[in-house]
Amino acid sequence: KALIERLAKRTAAEWEIIFSEARVPAVKVRTLPEILLDPHVQSRQVQQQLTDPISGKQISVPSIGFKWNGEVLGPRRMPSRLGQDTQSVLGELGLDAIRIAELKQMKVV
Q1: What's the rounded Cα separation, in Å, for the pair 14 and 26?
Q2: I want to staple 10 with a disulfide (CB 3.0 to 4.6 A). Which of 14, 26, 38, 97 is the partner?
Q3: Which residues face 67 on adjacent strands?
Q4: d(C-alpha 35, C-alpha 42), whole Å
Q5: Which region, left, alpha or beta, applies to residue 58 given φ > 0 means left and ψ of -120 to 50 means alpha?
Q6: Which DSSP category does 93 fall into?
Q7: Backbone angles phi, psi at 61, to 5 degrees
Q8: Which long-range contacts (C-beta less than 8 Å, at least 24 apart) are formed by 1-6?
């Protein structure tokens, strides 16, 4: 209880500085938007901008967070739209066109 009361007297950002100066490993819990705005995270290019060919809008997609030979590794094209690959995936799993049509009719896929 005493620790909670003591910590409540300062902001998380203030405690982060105090702990860092004292060489105590501690950071505040950040939200995803805060993490993505962090200068270090931005320098690692963990987000990439791709253009949706249908809407023309820019969307952010994740990379894998590290570089290989100085290159950011991540998607080079937009992800598939919902259901776009269903037919080919089910075909690769051995379902024929008739069975896929039945599953569509039953609203399974």
Answers
A1: 12
A2: 14
A3: 72
A4: 9
A5: beta
A6: T
A7: -130, 150
A8: none
What digits encode the pLDDT tens for the residues 17-64? 999 999 999 999 999 999 989 998 888 888 888 999 889 999 988 888
Q: Which H, E and C letters describe 25-72, residue by residue?
A: CCCCCCCHHHHHHCHHHHHCCCEEEEECCCCCCEEEEECCCCEECCEE
State whether residue 18 is helix, strand or coil: helix
Q: CA–CA distance from 71 to each of 40, 45, 56, 68, 79 (Å)?
A: 16, 10, 26, 5, 20
Report d(CA 42, CA 24) in Å as an integer: 25
Identity at 4, one-letter amino acid code = I
Percent of the chain with pLDDT over 90: 60
CA-CA distance, 93 to 109, in Å (whole number)? 14
pTM of the entire structure? Answer: 0.52
Q: Read off the tokens for 58.
A: 């820019």
